[in-house]
Each structure stands twice: as structure tokens, then as C-alpha cells.
Amino acid sequence: MLKIKKVTIKGFGPYIDQAISFPEKRGVNIIWGDNGFGKTTFINALKFGFYQELPKKEDKDKSILDVVNMQNKKVNDYNISVIIDFSINDDNYSLTRYAKPKYKDSIPEGYNDFDIDFQLQKNGALLSKNDGKISLERAMPENTSRFFIFDGELLEEYNKLAEESQFTYKLKDSIEQILGVPILTKGKRHVNEYNKIVSNKLLQLSKKQNEDSKNYKKWEEKTNELKERENERFSIEKDRIKFQQEYDKIYDEIKKGPSGTKIKEYENLERELSTVKTKIGMKKLDIKNTINDSWRGLTYQRLILYKNEAVSFINSYKNKIKKHDTYIKNVDMYQISVHKRNCEICSKSLNNIDVEQMEKKIDELKLQIPTITDDEKREYDKFNNVVTIISEKLERFKPEQTRLEGLSNDLEGFELDEYVIQEKMKDIQRSIEDFSKQREENVILEDQKKKALDNLSNATSSLKDLDKNISEIKEQMKRLESLIKEQIDDTKLVVYKEKEMILSQLHSLLEEGTEVFRNQLKTRVQSDAEKLFLKFSNQKDFTGLRINHNYGLDIVHSSGEIVPVKSSGFSHIVSLCLIGALHKNAPVKGPVFIDSPSGRLDQIHKNNLVNILTDISDQVVLLLYNGELDEQMIRKNLGSDLTAEFELIHENDNAFKTIIIER
Questions:
Q1: What angle do CA 166, 168, 172 make, to 5 degrees?
Q2: pTM, rounded to two decimals
């Protein structure tokens, strides 16, 4: 297994010269840091170190200039480097990737003004460039990087695997590479290529004896037909690439637009709010029916009434405490936003007007904070004792009372969710100037994206039909070639014929073996992902996962049916379970670095996420913003598996200089 021991970053983003060392012990490492302190930059530095990958931007020149430390730029220092010390089993490696200006006396203006290179040492000895490239490709293949280094947004890609769409091919290939399938597919391809050489040689020698035969003339007709179909396919493939580029451009415009992501988030919140409102209505109806059923025909009215009064006071007190804590938490959050002049919810920088509005909001919230008195606390303790005594005498009526209390607690939770969602929606509206206009423009872009996707789907469908037709023509040509070759009586040709037969059998064997191996892998991946899912999810009606041929995972309901639509939270959960299962079954094992892993998870699933981290990989590194996960919960749940904690801070409040300290 590959384990990262130390990362040193120089001149990259806010890191002027910083190093972080990870314990060799199996477990979880956490890097804490607020927004803008360098968590995503740390991930980008790893990608640059391993793959020479820079943050994706339309302007390649801008992408490299933007990662150079701003403070260094002021003194014309444009050098960047990332050093990654790692081990694979008993071998120790040190990888250095650097970029430096080509010309000493001039300031670089773009990508081509930099020399970018790397060197790799193995056990202290410097490897040649070729050996270094081969070693890196074996250790951390570039097209499998998404399984080792990723953020919450990248997890969305895995949802496409369950959609059976044309966008899954590249991702499926990456999955199969990490699982070791290319070993068989490459062998199959090499055998097939050699078989074509032998077959063509055999066919050329056979033609001389069969030029006047009907089979040979039919074969020539099919050859011409094949050329026509392949030319047609080439033309449609060009269109498909064009449609793909159009789609990607619109998609990037939506994603990278100043408000596109927030509008998308607003629409998701609208859907969540609708779902929560429905749950509130259903829960109120359940409470009404439960109360009616509990009271019908009972003869112990006074005792039950007294108990209900006690329970009502207890619930009211708890609600008051919860309301008190909620308002305090919201006041704290707004005060932090005012202090930092940066919204804690939407990360928007606050101007003076925003600060004034937020301070007004703080004053309003403070007036609404309920007061908790000592008398109420004593009454709460007294009624708790009363409920305990009565409950002992009415044990046989416990199910109805327990159900009613559970429904009430559920209702409180949903109402709190409703409040939080509505506040988030208000914050998004406040953060976007001319919200309605921006939303209309986003609708237009979404419509353009749909049209581009339709064109892309039609082209892909046409290619699929053509591929089927081409395959049929090739099969017909293959049968004709067999008939032509059967008439051979030359000894030399017989030898070629025997070679062709052996190679064909070997190719069929490899093809069958590849499919058997794939099916075994899918079975194991499904089983391991399902184990993680059942440990992760708290939804009892979801009893498992089912894998498709693209390695996408669907949730299985207790009825045996596939859950048709996954929420964004459960999509996140399934993607993390797939990552864990792939690591468990991969011959190439490595660490997992995740930036902001909690996504849209609720508090229960955030806790469950922490509990499965060590099942995902032997070395996990989380990059978390402060408050993303509860620190005490993490330390309690992980125990000794929490191997190290680090924090990103700005030295002397200098945003251009982040330092890494160990907690």
C-alpha cells in the first residue's frame, strides 16, 4: 500500500514554505481550516505533485500564475514546488515537482514561460526520467486519482454511474483500472492484434487462389460497405465531440457562474423545504390519530391527564431549552460573520450595509431568546419524577405514550429543519443581486444544456446503431474469410491457419475470463459497499445496494424495489460507500484525501461518516472547515484511530501566508 509520510509545499497558493508529516500508524488525520485558509489549495498541491495537474480554468496561463504565492510575486519570486515523501511496502520514495521561470530577467506571463519538471528518488537513489514516470504511474495512476484525492463536488460524478448515461465510460474505465481489469483487457488486445496480423497474412495468400470465386467477390462488396459505414461513423463522431464540447461549455458556465451554483442550491433547498413541509403535515396527522386512539375507552382519566400535564410541561421546557440554544447558536453565527465580515452560511464577503442588516438581525434574535428560570428547572425535575412513578403503574400503556412522544420529537426536528432551510434560502436571496433576473438567466442556460444533451444523446444513439451495423458486417466478412480459407491446400497456408485458430481460441478464453473477473469484482464491490451503506445509513427501509454494469449503485428498498430517486444526502452516502468498496478490492491501494466530506449530510449521518472512515482506507486525511463536524464527537468515535490533528492559520492575519500547526 502507498502511504504518504510528508508533504512540503513551497510558493504554492498561500503556502510559502510549509511541511506536514503524517503518522505511519493506520488511522484518520484531520486538517482543520476556515474557508480561504488553503484546504482546497492543499488538495491542488497534491494533484500538482503527483500529476502536474493545475486547477482547471479556461485560461491555462492564468491557472499557473494564480497558484503562485501572492507575497512571493511582490518580490518577483515565481518558483513553486511540491515535495511528497511516500512509501510503498518496504520502499521509500521522494517525489519533487517544481515550476520555475524559464528566463531569469523577466516576469513569466503564462504557462509556456515556466519550466515544469519532476524528479523521483527511490530508497535515496535518483531514478531516470523514464523509470520515474513508470514508477509514478504504477504507484498512483493519473486516471485513478479521483479515488484517492477528491472533494464533495467530485462525489457527484459517481451518481452518473447509476444513470446508465453516455458520460459514464471514462469513469467506468477509471474504476476498472483501479480494480486491475486492464491486465486482462490489454492481454486480450495484444492477442487480437497479433491474430489480425496472422489472419491478414492468411487472407492475402488465400486471395491469390480464390480471386474468381463468389465468396471473394462478396467479401470485396462487404469491404466497400464497411468503408462507407466507417466514414459515416467518423462524421457522426465529429458531431458528437462538438456536441460534447457545447454541453461541457454550458455546464461550466452554469457551475462557474457567479450565481449559478447558489441558484442551484436555492432550488435544492426549495425541494427539501417541500419535502419537510409534507413530513410535518403527515406527522401532525399521526399525532392526532395516536392521541385519539390512546384516549378512546380509557377509564383512568385523572391519572393520564396528570401525566400528560407533566409531559406537556417537560416537552415545553425542552422546546424552550432547544429554542434558547438555537437562538444563541444563530446569534453566535451572525456575530462571527460580522466579526470576520464574511457570511458563515454562504461565504459572501459583507459590506457595511450587510453588516448593519446583520447587526439588526442579531438584536432581533437576542430579544427573542427565552429566559430559563430556576423555578422552571425545579418544576422540570419534579414533573420528571411524577412521570416516572405514573409510568411504572401504567406499563401496559407504554407503547401508546412512547409513540406519541416519539412523534412529537420527530415533529420538533422537522420544524427546526424547516426554519434552518428557510433561513438559508433568505441568505442566498440576500447574497445575489437581482435574484429573480439571475434565476431567469440560469433557467435559459439549463434549457440550452438540455438541448445540447439531446443532441449528444441522439449522436451517441446513432453511433450505437452504426457500431451494431459495422459489427454485423465484420461478422459477415469473417464468415466469408473462413469459407475462402477453407479451400487452402498449401502447406504454408495451413500453418497460418493453425496459428489463427489457436490465437482465436486464446482471445475467446481471455474475453470469457475478463467477463468472469468483472462479474466477480462487481459482486465483491456490491457486497463491500452494501456493508458500509448499512453501517452508514439510519434508514431502516433501505436494506441494501445493487450494482449495474457501469459499477453504479442503486439503493434497494425493503420491498425489493429500487429506490427511484436518491436525495442529495443519500447520493453522497452511496458515493462514499463505492469509494470504500473500490479501495477494499483494488490491487493498487493508497490513501484517501477528502476536502469537505460531509456535503449535505445531516447530523446523524455525519456521525456515521466518522464511524466508517477506517473502513474506507488505512490512511484517511480529512480537510474540514471549523464546525463542519463536531470535534468532540470525532475524538470520541474515532478514539485511538484519530492519529493526528492539524490546523491552518494565517500568520499575523496575512491571507497570503498560511502556516500548518499541529493541535
A1: 140
A2: 0.59
SS (H, E, C) 72-127: HHCCCCCCEEEEEEEEECCEEEEEEEEEEECCCCCCCCCHHHEEEEEEEEECCEEC
Q: Does 19 score more than 90 pLDDT?
A: yes
Distance CA 355, CA 363 (A): 12
Give the pLDDT of residue 17.
95
Domain boundary among 386, 408, 434: 434
Total number of domains constituting the chain = 3
Residues 367 and 427 in one domain: yes
Distance CA 177, CA 586 (A): 9
C-alpha distances in angstroms, 631 versus 167, 346, 422? 38, 22, 27
Residue 449 CA to residue 621 CA, distance in Å, equals 36
User: pLDDT tens digits, residue range 286-338?
Assistant: 777 766 655 443 444 566 777 788 888 888 888 888 888 888 888 888 888 88
Report the relative pairing of strands 114-122 and 91-101 from DSSP bridges: antiparallel
Greatest extent of the chain over all pairs of C-alpha atoms, in Å: 111
Sheet arrangement for strand 149-151: 149-151, 592-595, 619-624, 27-32, 642-650, 658-662
Whole-angstrom Cα distance, residue 56 to residue 226?
Answer: 40
- The answer to whether residue 124 is domain-embedded is yes
Q: Is residue 605 part of a domain?
A: yes
Strand partners, 594: 150, 622
Cα gap 576→597, rounded to integer Å:
9
With a pLDDT cut of 70, the percent of the chain lying above it is 85
Q: What is the mean pLDDT of residues 454-467?
A: 89
Q: 404: domain range?
A: 297-434
Strand 553-557 vs strand 80-88: parallel, antiparallel, or unpaired?
unpaired
Q: Rounded to whole angstroms, how far apart are CA atoms 656 and 12?
A: 10
155: Cα separation from own chain's centroid: 1
